[in-house]
Write a structure and sequence with these properties.
Largest sheet: 4 strands, mixed
Order of helices and strands: HHEEHEEHEHEHEEHEHEEHHHEEHEEH
Keywords: CBS domain
CATH superfamily of the largest domain: CBS-domain
CATH class of the largest domain: Alpha Beta
Structural class: alpha+beta
Mean pLDDT: 80
Distance between the termini: 37 Å
CATH topology of the largest domain: CBS-domain
Number of helices: 13
Pfam families: CBS
InterPro entries: CBS_dom (IPR000644), CBS_dom_sf (IPR046342), Diverse_CBS-Domain (IPR051257)
Protein name: CBS domain-containing protein
Strand content: 15-25%
Strand order of the largest sheet: 9-15-14-13
CATH architecture of the largest domain: Roll
Length: 300
């Protein structure tokens, strides 16, 4: 290839894990003992937290779902030691690995994140499927003349909270409340979408507001998610454009759309709130350009 060219090699294939991973990683100590409520607060903005030992060696991984399950079964007031909840061993990847290999590793292990290690095996960061999607979406980001062709992968929430169809309604209620979400994909053992359950579904079945759900009849709380969920929900395929998402939101009046791969495995979820926030940012860009005396972005 000529200097500065790469012989048609995709941009993302030239990147290494170290180029897109998150370097500022919050961790938990395996020996820490915290209330479930305190642990829930640590997962407000993250899905996964590596667990380290006294020498900062990686020992395990704790996920938001691990803590939510503990909250459902034991209550948020209970104190637990982190090592009791963490999963181990942890799947890791070298910081020098390329992104296609990282994607294959995640998919093969059915994981949404990988701990990144250096040549000596020390943790140097974390790589999520969101990091991968953002990097790969960079190849597809259109020129400013066509912002509606941006892929939904760039705006969706990756690795969303999800439940299986055999989960109880009280577990769904806890997950919605403490996860701060309104929609939960329902997946089988291989993360394939089988339905979706929403805050509205629970209000119709349990009655009242979220604060009143714990007081619903026990027999109702013990019903299974599969009995209440919406079957065959509308979805977006990975790579679909924002214009396609907007069409579904406006025509079908849904609040959120799961984003799936070709095998119906859930990669993320896009809500109308995500789209509104993006629109607000676009409007801010237009106004900034107008203030600078440039041409506003062409509406599409």
């Amino acid at each position: 290839p000529e200097p500065g060219e790469h012989g048609g090699v995709p941009w993302s294939a030239r990147l290494r894990v170290r180029d897109v991973m998150s370097r500022k990683v919050s961790t938990l100590r395996a020996s820490e003992e915290l209330s479930v409520e305190e642990l829930l607060k640590k997962f407000r903005h993250v899905q996964h937290l590596p667990v380290v030992g006294a020498n900062n060696r990686l020992m395990g991984m704790l996920t938001r779902m691990d803590v939510l399950e503990e909250a459902v079964h034991s209550g948020k007031e209970r104190w637990v030691r982190v090592r009791k909840l963490m999963s181990c061993p942890v799947q890791s990847i070298s910081e020098n690995e390329d992104l296609p290999a990282a994607a294959r590793t995640m998919r093969g292990a059915h994981l949404h994140s990988l701990v990144v290690v250096d040549a000596n095996g020390f943790m140097v960061g974390i790589l999520t499927d969101g990091d991968l999607l953002s990097a790969m979406a960079g190849e597809q980001v259109p020129s400013p003349s066509g912002p509606w062709e941006l892929p939904v992968d760039a705006l969706m929430t990756p690795a969303p909270l999800a439940l299986g169809p055999d989960a109880r309604l009280d577990e769904a209620a806890w997950t919605l409340i403490y996860g701060g979400v309104r929609h939960l994909p329902v997946v089988d053992e291989e993360d394939r979408l089988v339905g979706i359950i929403s805050e509205r579904d629970l209000r119709q079945r349990l009655g009242g507001t979220a604060r009143e759900w714990p007081r619903a009849a026990r027999e109702v709380l013990e019903e299974r998610v599969g009995e209440v969920m919406t079957l065959e929900p509308l979805v977006l395929r990975s790579g679909a454009s924002l214009s396609q998402a907007l069409e579904l939101f406006t025509d079908e009046r849904v609040g959120a759309l799961p984003v799936v791969d070709e095998d119906q495995r859930v990669l993320g979820i896009l809500s109308y709130i995500d789209l509104l926030r993006w629109l607000r940012a676009q409007l801010g860009d237009v106004r900034a350009r107008e203030r600078e005396g440039g041409e506003p972005l062409a509406p599409h």
